[in-house]
Amino acid sequence: MLTKELVAASTVPLVLSVLTEGENYGYALIQRVRELSGGKIEWTEGMLYPVLHWMEKEDLIESEWREAETGRKRKYYRLRKEGRKALKEEKEQWLTVHETLATLWKTSLSLT
Amino acid sequence: MVNRPRNSGNFMENVSQFDLNASLGLWLERLAQAPHFRNENVAEMESHVRDSMTKLQSQGLSEEESFLVAIRRVGTVGKLEPEFAKVNRSPWNMIIHGVILAFFSVGCWILWALLQVPWMLIRMLSDAPPLPAFTRLLMGCSPFLVVPPLLALVYCLYALNKKSDVRPSWRRFLAATVGAILLLAFPIIVAVLLYFVE
After folding, report:
1. In which domain, by residue range, is B146 found?
2. What residue segments make up the domains of chain A, in order of their start?
3. Rounded to a whole number, what is the distance in Å from the CA of B73 to chain A's nearest CA?
4. Does A46 sit within 8 Å of B48, measured CB to CB?
5. What is the pLDDT of residue B6?
6. Which residues of B touch A70 (CB under 8 A)?
7. What's the ipTM?
8. Which of B69, B117, B177, B192 is deepest in the core (most CB within 10 A)?
9. pLDDT tens string A50-109
10. How far is CA B197 from CA B1, B26, B118, B194, in A?
C-alpha cells in the first residue's frame, strides 16, 4: 500500500492520465485506478471529488451532468487543453523522480 | 427447526425493515447540512453511492450491506468537509466581514463624536458647568477609540489570509463587534449624560 502523502501527490496525475483514455465519472475513475494499481492505490472515495472540483476550477478538466445508461444522472469529466499540458509537465516530473531513484537504487544494488 | 438461530426472526425483520431511500436520504441530509457541501456535491455523492452499491450488489452483497460499505468507502462527513471547504469557499464571507468592519468603524467614530459634545458645549457656552471627572477621563481616552477598528481590521486581514481549511465565520465577527460597541457605548453614554445631569 502507498503512503497517504504519495497517494495525495499522485491523485492529479492519475486522474489526468485516466481521463486521456476518454471522459469518465468519479466512481469509474476510482475503479480504473484501483484496477491499474492492482489495488495498491486506495483512495478514500469521497476525497476524489474535491480534487476533481479543484481541477475543474483550474481549467484542467470540464464536467457535464448526463443521463447514464442506467437512467440515473452522472457527472462526467473530460480533459481540457490545459489538462493535457499539465499532464505533460507532471509526466516529466514523475519520470525525473523515477529515473533518479532507479539510477540510485541500481548503483546501491550493485554495491551490495 | 432445532438448529434455527434464535434471532433469525429478528434478522428477517431487519432485512425487510431496511429502506434504502430513507437511509440514503438521511445520509445525504447529513452531507447537505455540512456548511461547505453544495447541492451539486450532494447529488454527485448520491450518484457515487448508487454506482458503488450496484457494483457491490453484483458481488453478492445485500442492499443494506452494499449501502453500508459504499458510504463507509466514501468517508465520513467530518473527513470530507475540510476538503470540500477548500474548493467551495464563498467570497461572501469576506465581503460580509468587510461590511461589518465598516459599520463597526462608523460606530466607534460616532462614540468618539459623542464624547466631543461636552467639550464643544464648554467652548460654545461661557457659563457651561465644569466637566465631571469621569467624563474628563473618558474624553482623555477618546483617541484610543481608533484601536478597536484597527484590531478588527487586523482580524479581517488575518481571516482573509488564513491558510486553514475553514475560514472564520462572519456571525462570530458580528457578535464580537456588536458586543464591543455595546461595551464601549455604555460608559461613554454614562459619561456624556453625567455632564448634562450635573
Report:
1. 92-197
2. 4-111
3. 6
4. yes
5. 47
6. 54
7. 0.89
8. B177
9. 999 999 989 999 999 999 888 889 999 999 999 999 999 999 999 999 999 999 998 776
10. 95, 62, 12, 5
